[in-house]
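Q: what sequence does this backbone want?
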């Protein structure tokens, strides 16, 4: 009987496969992701092994960096660099849970607002706390906040 594989193990396995295939973009992206995970593991007073949820948090953060860099490169007129950043972000996205559709997000926001008892935009913090528990990383925080504000406003 083998132990269940972690997300970090899956990334390492995919890196080995990419190295055999000489896929330069995948190699660079997965090495960057593993380095970011390793930095997170040694941050703090003692080194530790990250859980899959913590690895997902690191991958989300790295994906967001890629999206922001792509936007900056696009504004600077560097289309080739922007395309590479977008490709890296899309590769990282394959390791993240499927994002909620607009309808699914609206339904979960409705349920979260009802559960929190929020009635206006002034109660947004309380509503966000309840909604984030229902969304659990399946939607970008900015999307969630915009939908909460729309429904409360």
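A:
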């Amino acid at each position: 009987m083998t132990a269940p594989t972690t997300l970090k193990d899956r990334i390492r396995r995919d890196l080995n496969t990419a190295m055999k295939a000489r896929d330069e973009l995948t190699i660079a992206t997965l090495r960057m992701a593993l380095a970011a995970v390793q930095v997170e593991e040694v941050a703090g007073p003692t080194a530790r092994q990250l859980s899959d949820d913590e690895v997902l948090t690191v991958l989300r953060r790295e994906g967001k960096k890629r999206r922001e860099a792509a936007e900056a490169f696009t504004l600077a007129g560097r289309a080739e660099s922007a395309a590479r950043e977008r490709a890296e972000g899309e590769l990282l996205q394959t390791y993240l849970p499927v994002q909620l559709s607009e309808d699914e997000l609206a339904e979960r926001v409705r349920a979260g607002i009802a559960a929190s008892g929020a009635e206006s935009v002034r109660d947004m913090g309380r509503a966000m706390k309840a909604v984030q528990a229902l969304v659990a990383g399946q939607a970008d925080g900015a999307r969630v906040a915009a939908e909460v504000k729309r429904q409360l406003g």
